[in-house]
Amino acid sequence: MEWQRYLAGRGRGGASVGGYGGRGGYGGQPARGNYGNAKPAYPVARGPARAAPYQPRRPIQAHVPRAPRPYQPPVRRASPTPYQPRAQAPVVQPVLPQGGKGGYQATRPSARPIDNVHIYGQLERRLTDACHRYPKLALSPDFESVIHHWPTQGNLDIPLSVTIPFHTDPDLTLPVPEAEPEAADTEPKYIARVMLLSMVKEEEPADDKKKAPKPHMSKRIKFLVAKKANGGLMSIGGPHSPAKDGGDPTTDSAMIKTAIRHCKEICGIDLTPCKTWYKFCEIVYKRPSGAQDRTVVFVPDIWNHFAAGDPVKVYKQVNRQEVEVEEEVEVEIEVDDEEMKEGEEKEGEEKESKKVTKKIKKKVNTKKVVDNITVRSMDLSLNGILEYDMQDKHEETAELSLFAEAFDEMLSSKYAVQVLSILQAKKEKTDTQNAELKRKRDAENAERAQKLAAERDEREAKRKKMEEQKKEEAELKAQREEEEKNMTEEQIKERRAKEAEEKKLKDEEEKKAKEELMKKTREELEAKKKAEEEEKAKKEEEEKAKKTKTKVVTTTNVDDSILEPFSYFDKPTGHGGQQLGNLKRETVEGILHAMGTLCQREVDALLRGAGLPKEKSHISLYYKTLATTTTTTTIEVPIEEPKKEEPKSEETPEEGKDEAMQETKEETKEEAKEEEAAE
């Protein structure tokens, strides 16, 4: 029956058709054919379930209140970061891996020293080029271009060793000139400016003080600049006036007259004696009205017309105004004196009043002439002018900074030519030394090869000779053995004794010859040593006769013509920074590339000649070592005769003590005799 089979399956612990197993738990599998013999998927627990062991309950703990947390202010959100331009996107290049499937790999281009190099002497710089060259300079929105005229002036004869100090006296003032009617906005304006050059005087240190390092060239070069009361720094100058200056403002002669007039009005310096005027740079603006304004900067030759070392008086421009001010003044007034002197007062009498004069302070309004400084002049170093930033937004200040950049570029171009000539001379010297070294090395190698060949031939000859000797000895031995076959033992002994005697005589002769050779060599060495000693003694006698001796002196010389060009490019960083004394390879490479006349192969060859190979880009050029030369000379120095010491009497302590005791005894005897004579 079906239900009986079902019960039989449950009773035996097998799996039922419905899915529940026998006693003890779940997990049965459907029976296959025979319901009662089906095996469970995993062992089934049989028998009653065991009770869990007794575990006591945890005691109830009393509630402990937590300590209050200290107050913490809320965290403020950070301010948003300022906008920063995105970096250059990596160049994506297709790469084919070994598996055969195409892929992409991002690679960043490597920076080269030539990427940030600007060519010296470029005449015109448009807005984009100027922004790229001077990223910290705040240019005017109307700025169009800057034109450099100094490369077209030929060889600029600007001395950097003449000192012309400018003396600013607060009592020296000049009135503001009358204002001229302004021209229409549609008409172009021409402004002439002048830069007066000076140098800082080098102080010679005292003998007992250590020589201080010389400051950088950009800190020793100074210019006279002006500063407005309500503006920034500017170069001395102003706009062209047809009524006062005349001429065509597009010509240099008219602009020079304008510069002379404004310099005399602003700082009181007359530049009429200056005959040479270098047109240095020109700044062009494009105004909203369409007019094209131009500012031209000149450098006059004041070093030829002002005495070096004498101070030049510099005035300041003031605006004199009559203003009403309130001041305290002392005035005399008459008042009644009610105080009576003692002894003069009487009862019942009337008091007599007297008039007296008294001084009091009173505030009054007075008119006074006040000098308001509009423009004052000062001398500023080239390094100080170049320390500009984006906050200097005045057009006059930007023009001053552009001139400083042009002057710095002119000096860099001048010193770069000298650096090139120095490196070329160094390369020629290095090439000559390398060629001479190669010639000597080749000669040594040839001599060594010749010597090795001679030694090889000698060894080969010795080997052949030894082989021949061995062959002869073998033949003689075979012949002797053949002869000894027909000889008796006594004859053999006599023969061998005779051969031994001959060998002994031969060895003695060789030994004697060797001893004679050694004796001869020893005598030659002794004779040579004796001759050297005699020569040395002869020289010493000659030096004693001359009372002089020979001394080797080593002198170290520093060539300033080599030191100065490299030193200009070693610019100190920070306030009061000092020069490092070396230039990195990429810096020297950039200097050579900025000239615009050399290819990479020529630059690498020059740097290799100076000890800066391309394989060792981390090496720096120590230009002080390059400029230092050491020479060795021989001089005659007088011989100092040793001082003769006086002979000292050598007395032992005991002898001195005995002499003192003897003298004491003699004195005692004499005193005793005198006492007896007196008695």
UniProtKB/TrEMBL annotation:
<feature type="compositionally biased region" description="Acidic residues">
    <location>
        <begin position="337"/>
        <end position="347"/>
    </location>
</feature>
<feature type="region of interest" description="Disordered">
    <location>
        <begin position="337"/>
        <end position="357"/>
    </location>
</feature>
<dbReference type="InterPro" id="IPR045353">
    <property type="entry name" value="LAIKA"/>
</dbReference>
<dbReference type="GO" id="GO:0006355">
    <property type="term" value="P:regulation of DNA-templated transcription"/>
</dbReference>
<protein>
    <recommendedName>
        <fullName>DBC1/CARP1 catalytically inactive NUDIX hydrolase domain-containing protein</fullName>
    </recommendedName>
</protein>
<feature type="region of interest" description="Disordered">
    <location>
        <begin position="428"/>
        <end position="552"/>
    </location>
</feature>
<keyword id="KW-0175">Coiled coil</keyword>
<feature type="compositionally biased region" description="Basic and acidic residues">
    <location>
        <begin position="428"/>
        <end position="545"/>
    </location>
</feature>
<dbReference type="InterPro" id="IPR025954">
    <property type="entry name" value="DBC1/CARP1_inactive_NUDIX"/>
</dbReference>
<feature type="region of interest" description="Disordered">
    <location>
        <begin position="631"/>
        <end position="679"/>
    </location>
</feature>
<dbReference type="InterPro" id="IPR025224">
    <property type="entry name" value="CCAR1/CCAR2"/>
</dbReference>
<feature type="region of interest" description="Disordered">
    <location>
        <begin position="1"/>
        <end position="85"/>
    </location>
</feature>
<dbReference type="GO" id="GO:0005634">
    <property type="term" value="C:nucleus"/>
</dbReference>
<dbReference type="Pfam" id="PF14443">
    <property type="entry name" value="DBC1"/>
</dbReference>
<feature type="compositionally biased region" description="Gly residues">
    <location>
        <begin position="10"/>
        <end position="30"/>
    </location>
</feature>
<feature type="domain" description="DBC1/CARP1 catalytically inactive NUDIX hydrolase">
    <location>
        <begin position="214"/>
        <end position="332"/>
    </location>
</feature>
<dbReference type="Pfam" id="PF19256">
    <property type="entry name" value="LAIKA"/>
</dbReference>
<feature type="compositionally biased region" description="Basic and acidic residues">
    <location>
        <begin position="640"/>
        <end position="672"/>
    </location>
</feature>
<feature type="compositionally biased region" description="Low complexity">
    <location>
        <begin position="45"/>
        <end position="59"/>
    </location>
</feature>
